[in-house]
Design brief:
Blueprint: H1 19-33, H2 36-42, E1 43-44, E2 65-66, H3 72-85, H4 88-107, H5 109-112, H6 116-119, E3 126-130, E4 138-145, E5 148-155, E6 159-161, E7 165-169, H7 181-193, H8 196-202, E8 203-205, E9 223-224, H9 240-246, E10 248-249, E11 256-257, H10 263-277, H11 282-296, E12 301-306, E13 314-320, E14 323-329, H12 331-334, E15 337-342, H13 350-361, H14 370-373
Helix pairs in contact: 1-3, 7-10
């Protein structure tokens, strides 16, 4: 199936689509397929503080219901929910991320020994519902685990938020696996299309960060600094000078503005941007592109750090009022990739929720309007 391509020039009024309803029906079918004990683990209140915890590093005590504790039929329904919420390409990438845990288990056997069986386990991806899925209600779902963080918020099945949306891969390339090849290749294509003067504006530092500059913060602040090293790893380290050079400033984007690119360069920029936005269902991509356009597409900035080839650590980001994309490939001799699409204004549907509350209830405090905005699944109940 060929998915529709959207450009930054495609802005027009769009009618609401039916996919949000299909996502809701799919989630309802999955929830109904769970037994009482499973429901008690998978369901949390919509405004539970854990809803904005999208950290993808393997950890103990994670909330939710892991895939390994589901039947085969229940796992298929989880896959149906992912596929109904994402594009075909993104769904294929999600499947590869999960499957790659089998490869990592064998690669890491000498390092982790007997614990590799649990530490690199495709069954250790945790599903959560925030609010029970119902029609005409506000609810969300998350699937999180090693190198994967999917976070969807649905408002009355009319509006859907898909960020933060993280995909990672380690190894970044191994045998037939290179599941983030497009994200990496399009970044290099744009960088290599720039002339010398443009490169000087684009490359903000010769050293790449060890991971996302904004880390996995729940809400992106006005200023963010990268960590000195990756979580649990010391193979790549940066210092204070590096951190300051790589700094993220919401008010002062780094790099080259999209409006300063030539027409051919701009097409490469748009290709890279859409590579991330098209992780969403095709029905939603146009609306997201419209939102970016209305916020000021020419003011989007592209910044690069690190090497100009795949032999050394490299990093890029696209930054704008409602857009933050980060790609990093620095660990394990530039063979460990993390990529994320975020929305500084609408991660976890925050902007959608505020507009919904103001329109429907005249409310401006999301938490105070919990019961008004949510349907019958606003609190966790095992039955």
């Amino acid at each position: 199936m060929i998915e529709t391509r959207h450009t930054m020039q495609d802005h027009h009024e769009r009618s609401r689509d039916f996919n949000g309803t299909l996502v809701t029906f799919t989630a309802m079918a999955l929830f109904d397929a769970l037994d009482g004990e499973q429901r008690s683990r998978v369901l949390q209140p919509f405004h539970d503080g854990d809803r904005t915890n999208w950290d993808f590093v393997p950890t103990s005590g994670r909330k939710g219901l892991p895939l390994r504790d589901m039947t085969f039929d229940q796992q298929i329904l989880v896959h149906r929910l992912i596929a109904q919420s994402t594009s075909h390409k993104a769904y294929a990438q999600v499947v590869q991320v999960i499957s790659l845990e089998h490869v990592q288990r064998e690669i890491n056997q000498d390092t982790f020994g007997h614990v590799a069986r649990d530490f690199r386990n495709p069954g250790m991806y945790f599903l959560s519902f925030f609010g029970q899925p119902h029609l005409d209600s506000v609810w969300g779902w998350r699937l999180v685990g090693h190198h994967l963080s999917l976070n969807f918020t649905i408002v009355n099945q009319d509006y859907l938020s898909a960020t933060p949306f993280l995909l990672g891969s380690a190894p970044g390339q191994f045998g037939p696996y290179r599941l983030l090849s497009e994200e990496e290749d399009l970044g290099f294509a744009l960088l290599h299309s720039l002339d010398d003067e443009q490169r000087k504006r684009t490359i903000i530092h010769p050293v790449s960060p060890v991971d996302f500059v904004t880390r996995t913060v729940r809400r992106i602040g006005d200023v963010e600094l990268p960590d000195y090293h990756a979580v649990g790893a010391r193979d790549v380290m940066i210092n204070d000078a590096d951190r300051q050079a790589l700094l993220y400033s919401k008010a002062n984007p780094r790099g080259i503005a999209a409006g300063a690119l030539t027409s051919s360069q701009r097409r490469k920029f748009d290709d890279l941007l859409e590579c991330y936005v098209s992780r969403a269902k095709p029905e939603h991509v146009g609306a997201e592109m419209d939102r970016i356009q209305l916020a000021g597409a020419d003011a989007l900035h592209f910044a690069w750090a690190g090497g100009a080839d795949d032999k050394s650590g490299h990093y890029y980001r696209i930054q704008g009022p409602v857009t933050l994309i980060e790609f990093d490939n620095s660990e394990d001799n530039a063979n460990h990739v993390h990529s994320v699409w975020r929305d500084p204004e609408n991660d976890f549907g925050e902007d959608l929720l505020m507009k919904h509350l103001i329109k429907e209830h005249g409310a401006v405090d999301i938490n105070a309007a919990d019961h008004a905005s949510s349907g019958p699944g606003s609190t966790a109940s095992p039955d």
